[in-house]
Design goal:
Blueprint lengths: L3 H15 L6 H33 L4 H9 L12 H6 L2 H18 L27 H12 L10 H18 L5 H5 L3 H11 L6 E4 L6 H14 L6 E6 L2 H13 L4 E5 L9 E2 L2 E5 L2 E7 L12 E2 L17 E2 L23 H10 L1 E12 L12 H4 L7 H11 L15 E6 L12 E7 L9 E6 L7 E2 L4 E2 L2 H13 L3 H57 L6 H49 L3 H4 L3 E5 H6 L21 H29 L1
Parallel strand pairs: 1-2, 1-6, 2-3, 6-9, 10-12
Antiparallel strand pairs: 4-5, 7-8, 9-11, 10-11, 12-15, 13-14
């Protein structure tokens, strides 16, 4: 059976064929991969079920075979719609045969409608030449490349194929780090890991992601439940995604992982798909909600209109897009999600947050990636004496205060004192794909324990050196994840931290090893083919010399030079590969050692109250109220580096020595000038 590392790197090789040939090449690759998987598994299922039947009933006739095969498959593949039909089609017909095959499969399998057939394989070339947008030669190369890989359960289990698929998605995101599309479908695995492990889904729980992208949170929740309960089926998964291709990728991701998830297509704020069966305007609720919603989405209710000046001319922003004006009154959410106040139409952050709160059961929990602005945007009400003029409280301030204190009636009275904010993690900047906006993680809990009801844990994880800086974006390494997760888990309790670190160290070392295995497999793919070619070339050159010697003849200079040249290139490539392998091993060892270093760092910190102030704070409601419910973490955690303490006596002594040296130098210079005079 193939390893996920070898499979992932092999599949990513398709990107080299497609890159620069079409815009969204990941959709082409992932759709073709899924079609190949269905076809290979279809054949494997047929062989398996017929073999089992023959072992039970003996030799089967054609009628029996046809009857058995009717119920043998997870998905139906109609006649002439199999992978082999595409492979065997002539080049000029290949695009049409593939397009017809995937659409026919979608027609025969309602769950695959819009999933397997997102790509229009026979789309005409936009230049009007009469050709195809994806040239038949390129498609043939793709088909031939993938044809060599058996994607059935016999060679690639759901775990292997699912993990390889996730690896592909990450590689696609890495290639588009600076672009906006990567952020639509991928959240860094390290952030997902922190959220899932703090929320700890339980057997029988429901998990919901309102902006699910490719399904990373849902997949990882299923993996967590499999690890803790023995089966990924002990959890129910729900997600909504608005972008067609991303929705399709997510559905494929669920199928390849063997998960029975409900992934709906649509705009979560305008058209939430998960509502109560008996009331389509009442939001369904879940045990756990995990999300990375689009940061600061403008015009989220789609009711903005271009702002115009006095002359009726549209007023534009600096980027050339029109400024939008929104209705000031009269809005009421038909789903009644905005119990803490209507969020501004110009920024969707608190719209998403309130949708998430509405989607949590009375004892539900949530972990949400947010822009840091939600922690402090919006001002409280000010009187004329305080501010020089009377000013109403901003909507965003009121919503944030509501999360901390409870819902407020129109008369300003609290309906209930209820803090649902559990913990906040300030993350390094430039950590997320497609945006440089600094992010944070907000943890909500509608059923906090008694001792934490009036408290919020603030974790500062943005200190330089607590993340790896790379050219296009920053990343969290395994030891950085350990630092953050330990503080979250322990809330400053040393004994809890010790137990947690012991449990997590082995798992994080496994993550390091898995990453190393992927790198080593990638190096094999990068070098092995060239090395085999060079080895063949070298062997041929040596064989020519050997034949000459057998004939008792002297090899020619060109033959000797051919051997020397081939040997030099071969040896150089061997050394180059070996150096890269050693570098990968050294980096993995460095990261393993860093885990031990962070363990000691955290245990020391938790025994030093002064040091703790630079890592986290457990803030009570009185302090939050004194700070007007501003949750900006630098207000509570010492985020600056303390200045080095200096010994004044040592400084004075050093100053006197310098002064004495200067005086001596002046005297020597004066004597020298006298002599010259």
């Amino acid at each position: 059976m193939i390893t996920k590392q070898a499979l992932g790197n092999t599949l990513f090789g398709m990107a080299d064929i497609l890159r620069d040939k079409v815009e969204d090449y990941k959709a082409y690759i992932l759709s073709l991969l899924f079609f190949k998987r269905l076809s290979d598994n279809y054949d494997w299922e047929s062989t398996k079920v017929l073999k089992e039947a023959e072992e039970t009933f003996g030799k089967l006739n054609q009628k029996q075979i046809d009857k058995i095969l009717l119920d043998a498959h997870d998905f139906k593949i109609p006649a002439k719609c199999h992978w082999k039909d595409v492979r065997e089609a002539s080049m000029d017909k290949k695009n049409d045969v593939l397009n017809r095959a995937v659409n026919s499969i979608a027609d025969h399998n309602p769950d695959l409608k819009g999933v397997i057939n997102t790509v229009r394989w026979n789309e005409p070339s936009p230049d009007g030449s009469g050709g195809k947008k994806l040239h038949p030669e390129v498609l043939s190369l793709l088909v031939n490349y993938l044809d060599a890989v058996d994607l059935s359960n016999k060679n690639a289990s759901v775990d292997i194929l699912g993990d390889a698929y996730e690896y592909l998605i990450k590689r696609f995101a890495d290639e588009n780090k600076g672009g906006t599309t990567a952020g639509q479908f991928y959240t860094p695995q390290e952030v997902v890991d922190i959220i899932v492990r703090y929320l700890k889904p339980q057997k029988g729980h429901t998990v919901y992601d309102p902006t699910c992208g490719s399904g990373g949170f849902l997949i990882n929740a299923a993996k967590y439940i499999k690890k803790t309960t023995g089966s990924q089926k002990n959890i129910r998964l729900y997600g909504q995604e608005d972008v067609w291709n991303t929705w399709a990728i997510c559905n494929i991701n669920m199928i390849l992982h063997g998960l029975d998830a409900s992934i709906k297509k649509g705009d979560t704020l305008k058209d939430p798909k998960f509502t109560k069966p008996d009331n389509e305007l009442e939001i369904e609720q879940f045990d756990n909600v995990m999300a990375n919603f689009p940061f600061s989405q403008e015009n989220w209710w789609k009711n903005g209109e271009p702002k115009k000046d006095k002359k009726g001319k549209v007023v534009n922003k600096k980027d050339g897009s029109p400024q939008l004006a929104y209705p000031k009154e009269g809005f009421s959410d038909p789903y009644e999600r905005f119990e803490y106040g209507n969020p501004p139409f110009s920024n969707g952050d608190f719209a998403f947050l309130q949708h998430i709160v509405a989607s949590m059961k009375p004892n539900g929990k949530a972990g949400i990636v947010c822009p840091q602005g939600i922690l402090f945007r919006g001002q409280p009400e000010k009187t004329e004496e305080e501010d020089g003029q009377r000013r109403k409280a901003d909507d965003e301030y009121l919503i944030r205060r509501g999360f901390l204190k409870g819902k407020v009636e129109d008369d300003g009275e609290l309906t209930e004192a209820h803090n649902i904010v559990d913990a906040i993690v300030e993350l390094p900047g430039n950590l997320f794909y497609g945006t440089t906006i600094p992010g944070s993680i907000l943890f909500l809990n509608k059923n906090k324990t008694e001792e934490r009801k009036e408290k919020v844990l603030m974790v500062y994880a943005a200190k330089q050196g607590w993340y790896k800086e790379e050219a296009n974006m920053n990343i969290l390494l395994p030891h950085d994840v350990l630092r953050i997760s330990t503080i979250l888990e322990s809330w400053g309790d040393l004994e809890i931290a010790k137990v947690w670190i012991t449990d997590q160290k082995g798992r994080l070392r496994g993550v390091i090893q898995e990453e190393l295995d992927f790198k080593l497999a990638a190096l094999d793919q990068e070098y092995n083919e060239d090395l085999e070619m060079l080895e063949t070339k070298l062997s041929t050159a040596k064989e020519a010399i050997f034949k000459k010697k057998q004939e008792d003849k002297k090899p020619t200079q060109s033959q000797l030079k051919a051997v020397e040249s081939a040997q030099t290139i071969f040896d150089k490539m061997i050394r180059e590969k070996a150096d890269k392998i050693q570098t990968a091993h050294n980096l993995a060892e460095k990261e393993r050692n860093a885990i031990d270093d962070v363990e000691q760092e955290i245990l020391n910190m938790l025994q030093d109250l002064e040091l703790q102030k630079r890592y986290f704070a457990v803030v009570d409601m009185n302090e939050l109220e004194e700070n007007e419910f501003n949750l900006n973490i630098p207000r509570y955690v010492e985020t600056f580096e303390p200045e080095e303490e200096l010994d004044l006596k040592v400084i004075i002594e050093e100053f006197n020595q310098i002064t004495s040296s200067e005086t001596k130098a002046d005297s020597i210079l004066a004597d020298l000038l006298k002599t010259l005079a």
